[in-house]
Design goal:
heterodimer, A: two-stranded antiparallel sheet, 16 helices, B: 2 domains, 13 helices, 0% strand
């Protein structure tokens, strides 16, 4: 194509680059706005015109992690001087940190929700990828009668709207006492991700030449040894990519968590919106919570960038 | 059930004589997953199929009474349910068309030598990886009539987005387009980069115009992969719940998943909601079936 490039094409190329840059800026603007609001003092979060240049503050994060109440009267200079820096930022915002009888700082609901998200997402990812890897190997290497139908069955379980599945699951969980438990949500997310993990891992397994294991079998390895010592190391990249996809899905999931949990096992996605009450919400705190919540996914997206296409198309399209 | 499906392997195969037989390993690897999915996916659905023929309410201790097809009959004759489906259809069309225009458009622009192309592509993909519920919530601030950045940037004054019944569905769709255009872009880029370069060279030698080149070379060759993106997004948009539920509570944005959620968990009409869930399920399975058939067709090429 380079050989037949005309000057108008080069001009068009320049225009295209400018448009792409503009689109990228527009697409990233909401994410930038979340990140910047997370470091704003409260009074700058909702201004007209919007505040772009400001002195970044850590106070939204202090407020995110602590329980606070409105200050009735300004703190005395002694109180203010005695307070640690993180308490002063809260004083500056016209609030005070709630302490219990022993003077212990009270945490907000956020840290426990964040921990719940971590526990549930990591455990369900390990289970889904673990089972999925074995099953994918089975489908990839052995003849299975009705393989296409079984794979369709596996995929279709993932395609149902969460609410459709949630209604009977809610009733069953209620009957056995699994509502609002970590185990309950872990089982749901494992089931949800397992189908995805099988489909994606099967693609990775298909790419590992059968000759590797056959050579090992000739050398006296059993099938199991060949699987663990030859196939698994070869599949490591695929397993990692699948795991990250499963983690992100479980981490981001909202509908099941909304229906199945309300306190003890609640994850961050239903918790963060529940902070927006009827009054004027403190958007800096919501932005801080959102920012911390999005951070792992943003990092993973960069690590995953070469596998995104494959993961998002259920392994149908490979690079 | 799953064992009956399995064919027998050659018992004399080399590996079968040492350690566990291939047959054992295959069953060991596949059956637990199938059983797990049956227990946690199929069994609940059978459970709710049973309830769909009753007047059961999970909020009351009263036992469920069998009412036959009454739930289905009433649902299918309920104009409000049909309006929920109509809202869903409108949402699917607006958001998928928007995603295809933006996603395919950006892919066309990106499909050339651009400095830092890899980085730009990754940055553009970021929105679709984020949590719909959490990021969607933040769009509430962006759409705010008084201090939303969107109204300020577009000079719209105090324009109401989310509390305006006529606009709310479009506002939700715009957020969805923002999140999922990258998906269409990603797939389109894969399709575009697979178009053989020599076709363009031949077209240039024949002095074919750029419109001709686009409609006769680019589009037909990218069409299958674009179709995958469209079917996939249609399916997801049909199921949509998070965004619409979080952004607004307008009756004009009550897509079918939200109606189902309210019926099941706010009005506690459990039996009836199970019936509605089955109607939705059949629709989704039909689309999934088309999707998988299409995937296999594309894979074979």
């Amino acid at each position: 194509m380079a050989a037949v490039r005309t000057s108008s094409e080069i001009g068009f190329n320049r225009v295209a680059i400018v448009v792409v840059l503009l689109v990228t800026i527009i697409f990233l603007a909401p994410i930038y706005w979340i990140a910047s609001t997370a470091f704003k003092p409260r009074n700058l979060a909702t201004t007209i015109p919007p505040t772009v240049v400001f002195q970044p503050e850590i106070s939204p994060f202090v407020k995110l992690f602590t329980k606070r109440s409105q200050l009735r009267s300004a703190p005395t200079p002694e109180e203010y001087a005695a307070a640690p820096w993180w308490e002063r930022v809260v004083f500056d915002g016209g609030e005070k940190i709630v302490r219990d009888g022993k003077g212990q700082v009270q945490w907000s609901g956020y840290p426990s929700r964040f921990m719940n998200s971590l526990i549930i997402a990591i455990t369900s990812t390990v289970l889904a990828v673990g089972m999925g890897t074995f099953t994918a190997y089975g489908f990839s290497r052995f003849k299975v009668k009705g393989e296409a139908d079984l794979l369709f069955f596996i995929l279709s379980t993932r395609m149902l709207p969460p609410v459709v599945v949630a209604i009977p699951m809610f009733l069953m969980y209620r009957a056995v006492g699994l509502n609002d438990t970590h185990v309950g949500l872990i089982i749901l997310y494992t089931a949800f991700n397992l189908s995805f993990s099988v489909w994606l891992m099967k693609g990775f397994m298909d790419e590992i030449p059968k000759e590797y294991e056959e050579a090992a079998l000739v050398d006296g390895y059993t099938r199991m040894e060949a699987f663990f010592k030859i196939v698994l190391p070869e599949a490591a990249t695929g397993i990692a990519a699948t795991a990250v996809f499963c983690f992100i899905t479980a981490w981001n999931e909202y509908a099941f968590a909304l229906i199945m949990t309300n306190r003890r096992a609640q994850t961050a996605p239903p918790f963060i919106p529940s902070q927006v009450g009827s009054g004027l919400p403190d958007w800096t705190v919501i932005a801080a919570g959102t920012f911390l919540f999005l951070l792992p996914v943003a990092i993973f997206t960069f690590l995953l960038r070469n596998h995104l296409l494959r993961g998002m198309s259920f392994g149908a399209i490979r690079k | 059930m799953a064992t009956a499906v399995m064919t027998t392997l050659d018992p004399n195969s080399r590996s079968a004589t040492r350690g566990m037989s291939d047959l054992t390993i295959r069953n060991l690897f596949i059956i637990p997953t199938i059983v797990f999915l049956i227990v946690f996916n199929i069994f609940p659905l059978l459970y709710s199929l049973g309830y769909s023929f009753t007047d059961f309410r999970a909020s009351s201790p009263a036992a469920a009474n069998f009412v036959g097809l009454q739930n289905y009959r009433e649902l299918l004759n309920d104009p409000f349910i049909w309006s929920n489906f109509a809202i869903t259809a409108k949402y699917v069309i607006v958001s998928v068309v928007g995603q295809v225009i933006v996603g395919f458009g950006v892919a066309l622009l990106l499909n050339r030598d651009i400095p830092l192309k890899g980085l730009l592509t990754t940055l553009l993909l970021l929105p679709m990886m984020l949590s719909m519920a959490v990021v969607g919530l933040f769009w509430k601030l962006l759409y705010d009539p008084s201090w939303g950045v969107i109204n300020y940037a577009l000079g719209l004054g105090n324009f109401e987005w989310l509390s305006n019944p006529d606009m709310a569905l479009y506002a939700v769709a715009i957020t969805d387009i923002w999140m999922w255009s990258p998906f269409v872009m990603l797939l389109s880029l894969a399709g575009l980069s697979a178009v053989p370069k020599h076709l363009y060279e031949a077209a240039a030698i024949d002095r074919a115009g750029s419109f001709y080149t686009f409609f006769r070379i680019t589009l037909p060759l990218v069409a299958p992969i674009l179709m995958i993106a469209i079917i996939f997004r249609t399916m997801e948009a049909f199921k949509t719940f998070d965004l619409a539920y979080i952004l607004t509570s307008q009756p004009t944005t009550e897509v079918i998943s939200i109606r189902l959620y309210k019926m099941a968990f706010q009005e506690w009409q459990t039996g009836r909601s199970c019936a509605l869930a089955y109607i939705v399920l059949i629709m989704v399975l039909a689309i999934t079936n088309i999707y998988v058939k299409y995937l296999n067709k594309v894979k074979e090429r």
